[in-house]
Each structure stands twice: as C-alpha cells, then as structure tokens.
Amino acid sequence: MSSTRTASGRTSAKNGTWRNWGGNVSARPAREVAPASVEELADVVRRAAEDGLRVKAVGTGHSFTSIAATDGVLIRPRLLTGIRRIDRDAMTVTVEAGTPLKRLNTALAREGLSLTNMGDIMEQTVAGATSTGTHGTGRDSASVSAQIEGLELVTADGSVLTCSERENPEVFAAARIGLGALGVVTAITFAVEPVFLLTAREEPMPLDRVLADFDELWAENEHFEFYWFPHTGSTTTKRNNRSAGPAQPVGRLQGWFDDEFLSNGVFQAANWVGRAVPATVPAIARVSSKALSARTYTDTPYKVFTSPRRVRFVEMEYAVPREAVVETLRELKAMVDRSPLRISFPVEVRTAPADDITLSTASGRDSAYIAVHMFRGTPYQAYFTAAERIFTAHEGRPHWGKIHTRDAAYFSQVYPRFGEFTALRDRLDPDRRFQNDYLRRVLGS
C-alpha cells in the first residue's frame, strides 16, 4: 500500500490510516474522496447513503479530538479551494471550504483586505477552523466563525443549502460552528475590512501582576493574551492594537531567531530533554520563561496574530466566564504547585466577547480561554484531568477540537441553546449520516 507524507506532517494512505496533526487520533475510513466541485461532493454524500456509510470531511487534522474520524467515507476538500468572489460593496469574500487560512490571509492582503480577528495559527482550512470554533483573542472582536456572513452546506440527502441571517437563519445560527454534524460545508462568506496595521507589544510580566491587573489589561487593549510558564511566576504578555503606522515589521534575522530558533528549535530540544528526564522540567521552564526578550513591531494583521508552531503537542482548552478567569488560573497554579506534575508547555490565556452562535464557546457570555498543553508523546492524562476538574467547576465549555471528556448531559447544562442545536440536527440529519463516536458522545445519539 503506497502512502504519502502531507504538508502538515501526517501520513495518509489510500484506504489506509488517517492520523491527526497531534498524533493522538487515527481512523481507517472505508474510502477517501477528494471531490472537485460541490456537485461531486453532493453525489458522494448520496452514494454513501446508498452504501450505508457515514460521512465526515477533514481539513488539515489540527483538531485533537476525534471530531473528523470515521470508518465510512472521508472527504478531503483539497480541490475545493480558492476565492469565489469578493464583494467590495458588501465588504465580504466568499471562499471555498478547503482553502487554508494562510492562503486566504495572503490573498486578502493582496486585495487590500483583511479579516478582523484570527487565531494564532493559520494552517487549518476555513471550514475546519470555523466548524470547531477556532478563535484568537479580542476585547470586542470575536472568533473566526463570528465573522461569517453566509455559508453553503451539503446536507444528508445531498441537497445544497445556503444560509445567512436572511436565508435559513435557524441553520445559520448553528452551522457557523456546526461540528460537522449538520452537513458538509462547501463555501463560507466572511465579512472583511480594508487591511490595517497592528502594533504588537510583547514583554515578560510577573504572573501576580497579570492577575492583579487583568481587567485593566483586557480593557485597555483590543487584543490581549499571555502565556504562563508552570513551575514559575513568569508570563509573556502580548498586546495588539491598531496603528496608524508606519509598518515596522520584525527584522528577518530577529524573526528567525525568536520565532524559529528559540520558539521552535530550542523549545523542541528542551521538550525532548524534559520528556526523557522529567525532573529537569522546572529548571527548563525557568529558562524558557526568560528566553524571549521584549519587542514591539507593526505589521499587517495576519503577520501579527499568527506565528509558526512546529513543536508537536496535545491540547485541552476551556472557555470560562471572563469574570472567573483570575480565580480559575489561581486554582490551576495551586494545583500544579502542589502536584508531582512536570509541565514543560506554557498555559495560554485569551478572551472573546459574547456571540450569538448556538454552540460557540462564547455563546451568550463574555469568555476567557485557558489552554493547557503537553509535548507530544508525554503522558498528559493526569494533568488534563486535574485541569478539567477546575474548569468544569466554573461551568467551562471545552473547545470542540481539543481534548476533553464532557458529554451531551454536561453540554445541555452549560449551553442554554443546546436543545436548539440537537433539534436542528434531527431535522437535517435524521439518519445520522454525519455521525461518529465523538458526535455521539457530545450531542447524544
């Protein structure tokens, strides 16, 4: 059986095993298809129904859950890429579902346009990123999905459904973060704006000061985030705000040294050491927390929001009410400090305003995100279990694409509109054509 190495590092074999980016999820689909048009994709769904097979679409495999895994038909949208149209009057762009975010960002920049907010990596496809609720950080601007103005969906019977606030609004409310449960997204229309400049200010700051001043740091910056290094009292903070310019990007040499050599090369080597000799992790964390110096730069949004992530890891992330984030972090730090755990990856903290998407982690409430990571190949269960216990005590909502153990009973309690989503699923996919084990757990059967 022949196999190929994909750009994001996974091994894919025809009629063989699919693996995600983190290496913690695998599946053996009955067949893989790469339709070249919406019509072909709709036919794939109809044929799967005739053959009694489930259907899942997969992007670049950056989810750490099994949300895209299937033993049925695996759809790869790599031929459904590119911009369909740009509407400068409405300030929207319609893009094919398989388009990687990095290609969208660079294409928009060439047109003098930009998304308002982004996540911190741009390897994912637009459909994969939005279907799982990918987000960045923002005081006023929300997730990538919240910037959707319309989308196109192939439903379980092979029909093509378009939806927006005006057309099929009840589907639009849910399908912007649809988990792959309502159909296969084939195109997305995003709101865009004229390209602008962001000034990023990155600097170390003691954790105690960040927690004491968190409300002020959040209120005074359009985009505030920080990384806390477990086993230390240190953080690295990042504040992004719009700028009149001029552009002053990071120099090529400094960018390579900070973002490639230190943040990827040296960091990976340090994690190898920590995985082999866990007792060294606290010392490594102290060095890591001091490795990056303060810097300020001004550039186009996608060059500020995103950064290369080449060190493989697994991740859990929960959204808690924003007013609970400081208390939650204090509890997380106390848990780590009193435990025998050795954590070599920093904890990432971001925010988002409330939105109106049915199963968005920020649905109906201002939210803060706390993400915990472990180096790939390192046992993570004890750490994630202890962290999850803290997050759920604050009615946390886990990221749909990151490791968690919650089920439909839990989600029905923390999402007021959960029943609205499952009722829509019953209508659009009564035979569960898009079902898999993950959706059975989180949505019920």
Write the layout of secondary structure elements.
Blueprint: E1 3-5, E2 11-13, E3 18-19, E4 26-27, E5 31-33, H1 38-51, E6 55-57, E7 73-75, E8 83-87, E9 92-96, H2 101-110, E10 113-114, H3 126-131, E11 148-154, E12 160-164, H4 169-175, E13 184-191, E14 193-194, E15 197-206, H5 207-212, H6 214-220, E16 223-228, E17 234-243, H7 252-276, H8 281-289, E18 295-299, H9 301-305, E19 313-321, H10 325-338, E20 347-352, E21 367-375, H11 381-393, E22 397-398, H12 408-414, H13 418-428, H14 437-443
Parallel strand pairs: 5-7, 6-7
Antiparallel strand pairs: 1-2, 3-4, 8-9, 9-13, 10-14, 11-12, 11-13, 15-17, 15-18, 16-17, 16-20, 19-21, 19-22, 20-21
Helix pairs in contact: 10-11
